[in-house]
Amino acid sequence: QLQLVESGGGLVQPGGSLRLSCAASQFTLDYYAIGWFRQAPGKEREGVSCISVSGGTTNYADSVKGRFTISRDNAKKMVYLQMSSLKPEDTAVYYCAALLTTVRNMCVLVFNRYDYWGQGTQVTVSA
Fold first, then answer.
1. Above 80 in pLDDT, residue 89?
2. Which pLDDT score, from 0 to 100, does residue 1 have?
3. The dihedral sign for the CA sequence 20, 24, 98, 41
4. Given the DSSP bridges, would you call strands 32-39 and 92-100 parallel, antiparallel or unpaired?
5. Residue 57 burial (10 A CB sphere; 0-12, 13-18, 19+)
6. Could you tell me how far CA 3 lies from the centroid of its own chain?
């Protein structure tokens, strides 16, 4: 079974940057699209970004376009979310998730399509 572990969260001031990492253990990422989701207290889970198996297709929520960048390194079994120009409203627990698929150039930001989830990492943006 695929296991995912997020890291890189923390406390950052508004306007700052963080890079989240998602590591896959005991398996390959070669057949999985990867998504990043977040959930703030009292709010629904929100799709942030996703990347296709090939890495050639990425999608972003409108709220993070131009500020966040998703990337992947299949050889290292890693996916990254570079977050810049952070805002207080970005504060949430961030989760990476994997979707098993035979389609190499597609990803979706629909959380119930994803098969495996990490435990989450807290991101707090505050002065």
1. yes
2. 83
3. negative
4. antiparallel
5. middle
6. 14
Residue 80's pLDDT is 98
Is 12 within 8 Å of 123 (Cβ atoms)? Answer: yes
Ramachandran assignment for 11, one of left (phi > 0), alpha (psi -120 to 50 degrees), beta (any other): beta
Strand locations in 15-120 (E): 18-25, 32-39, 46-51, 58-60, 68-73, 78-83, 92-100, 116-117
CA separation for the pair 25, 3 (Å, rounded): 5
Residue type at 73?
A: D
Terminal-to-terminal C-alpha distance of the chain: 40
Q: Which pLDDT value is given to residue 26?
A: 66
Burial of 86 from C-beta contacts in 10 A (0-12 / 13-18 / 19+): buried
Tokens found for residue 42: 């009292």
